């Protein structure tokens, strides 16, 4: 059975919700995005990211179902491959974690958007 791509014999260091929050902030700052201002929502996503990291060894997007195999999940490792087109069209990513500065300035809450990921990853 294929598993997460960790160094042989070394399990990944466990990540806490606080580690995931730091990851979220770093990613947003690096890319010029705004983190969703809803702190409870972000805290829930940070918890999901930490759980997924501890389960799979990488920050798998908590709003999508992955396989737990990095090779199959690479398109939905946060920030996912679909973020750029989602932000371009809707102003935020699929889960609403990362907003464009323009969308954030409008003060709107992210809304549900269509899923771009193919039903069969790699298709």
Could you describe the 3D structure shown?
There is one protein chain. The chain has 123 residues and is mainly alpha-helical. The chain has one domain: Alpha-Beta Complex (Ferredoxin Thioredoxin Reductase), CATH 3.90.460. The protein contains five helices and two strands. It has helices spanning 17-31, 39-56, 70-73, 83-90, 101-106, and strands at residues 34-35, 98-99. It has a two-stranded antiparallel ribbon. Helix 1 packs across helix 2 (39-56). The chain is globular and about 45 Å long.
In short:
The chain has 123 residues and is mostly helical. The chain is built from five helices and two strands, in the order αβαααβα.
Strand order of the largest sheet: 1-2
CATH topology: Ferredoxin Thioredoxin Reductase
Secondary structure tally: strands: 2
**What is the general shape?**
globular
- Beta-strand fraction estimate: under 5%
**End-to-end Cα distance:** 22 Å
Number of domains: 1
Just give the CATH class.
Alpha Beta
The structural class is mainly alpha
Helical run tally = 5
Report the uncertain regions.
Answer: none
CATH architecture: Alpha-Beta Complex
Which series of helices and strands comes N to C? HEHHHEH
Estimated radius of gyration: 15 Å
* Average pLDDT over all residues: 90
Fraction of residues in helices?
40-55%
CATH H-level superfamily: Ferredoxin thioredoxin reductase catalytic beta subunit
The major beta sheet can be summarized as: 2 strands, antiparallel
